[in-house]
Amino acid sequence: MSGVKSVVQLLIFLGILAGYYYIAWPLLTKEALAAGAVLGLLVHWAITNKGNRDIWNMHPLGGGFRVLFYDMLFAALLTALVQQGLVSELFSGGQVSALATALLGAILIDYSITG
Hints:
By secondary structure, the protein is mainly α. The protein is built from four helices and no strands. Helix 1 (2-23) runs antiparallel to helix 4 (95-114). The longest helix is centred in the first third of the chain and has 22 residues, at 2-23.
């Protein structure tokens, strides 16, 4: 059963990446990407990883890696929206709010299953 869960989680990961590329990529700037990388890493280390040094021992495409990547994508999206004054897009019920909800849902799913 564990293999089925990880295959489903991997498909969710790839689906979110495709949606992110389609929806958020045109909004992103170099600054938003850099801020997303740094802020996502800090958020993951402080909240998800609880300050544990195991952040460096993640397996590629494993649960911790996916959550770290989701954190970075979410932080980059928020930074780009703030930069462009489009924060209201998060609450409009459009594509951006659907993407943000999908990212948060994926973080919660991977975190609850992987821990």
